[in-house]
Amino acid sequence: MKQAAFAVLTALPLCAHMVSLSSGTLRVDGTQLIYEARIPLYEIPNIPQFDKLLFDEIHFRSRSGDAKLVGSACTADKDEGFYRCNATFTLAQPEEELEAYVGWHRVIAQNHTHVLSAVRGEVTAHGVLQASSPTAKLRFRPLTLAEQLTEGAWAGGQWLLTTPVMLLLLAAIVVASRSRPEFKLLAACFVIGQALPLLAASVTPVLNPRFLELASALAVAYLAVEILFLPQAGTRWLVVAVVGLFPGLALAAMVRQTELSAVGVWLGAQSMEVMLVATSGFAWLRYSIGRGLDRLAGWALLALGAAWFAYRWFV
User: Fold this and answer.
1) Among residues 107, 142, 177, which one ends one of the domains?
2) Across 223-240, average pLDDT
3) Taking residues 213-232, what's their average pLDDT?
4) How many domains does the chain have?
5) Is the pLDDT higher at 132 or at 83?
6) Which end of the chain offers a freer environment for a tag, N or C, measured as fewer CB atoms within 10 Å?
7) Does 1 reside within a domain?
8) C-beta of residue 308 within 8 angstroms of C-beta of residue 224
């Protein structure tokens, strides 16, 4: 048991933050590319020459070849809470279209998302770069509504799949269900709770991701306690609705900080959640009832929730 607990705790530093975001602006002036990035200070690990690692993982390319890095520098702005990076690249000749590569998921967090805005004259192009799609075509024209929704949905779905605490929350909701009607009720309450902050994304406060992770870990542990010690609790649906607020706040922060489509982000996250919860939920209800698996799963969720809370509290 001690060895298993140690393995869980030592694996936690490999897990990603609940919201790992950065933004960048690329100004295209003929053959010159001027790049500026903002990364929240809480994302920056204590690694020597971290700025060099960042610029090793960012490249721009056109039909005439790779853009050459002329100079770069990063500074910590503690007053605003951002790590600011600036760089200048040059192209062999002016181009109408660029390809950007940002592999910061390799050096910051596995679920890191970098939202890039490229400006050429009066036209702005956008790219969302993350582990599953670290490259983006920058076409200097306004995005259509369909492209905005697709861009947001991709970012929302990727966030869900690469955020372990979210997967723990979904697992806790599945295990907490005692019947099919209750399963449907809990899933609906979670979706409603998650949607509320997104509906008011423009005024929703951007909370520290560390706080959201701590709250989510406590939510997993609380649901586990209910499963183990309060099996007949009658207000589980209300608890799950409140729990849904935490990922909703995380998604609202993503929308606020990246200017992604709130509808697209919600659709992407909800689509993945429905697929995962529906598949695992009906399988759980079919094969676990009467076999004592709910208690085993409850203890596992309690251990993981407590371990996650302890890790994020001290790190």
Assistant:
1) 142
2) 88
3) 90
4) 2
5) 83
6) N
7) no
8) no
Same domain, 203 and 103: no
Taking 80 as the threshold, does the pLDDT of residue 9 lie above it? no
Between helix 293-314 and helix 164-176 the angle, nearest 10°, is: 150
Other residues' Cβ atoms within 10 Å of the Cβ of residue 185: 16
Q: Which domain holds residue 191?
A: 159-314
Residue 258 confidence (pLDDT) above 70: yes
- Write down the pLDDT at residue 16: 54
Say if 196 falls within a structural domain: yes
The structure's pTM equals 0.70
Picking from 96, 116, 142, the residue at the C-terminal end of a domain is 142
Residues 252 and 205 in one domain: yes
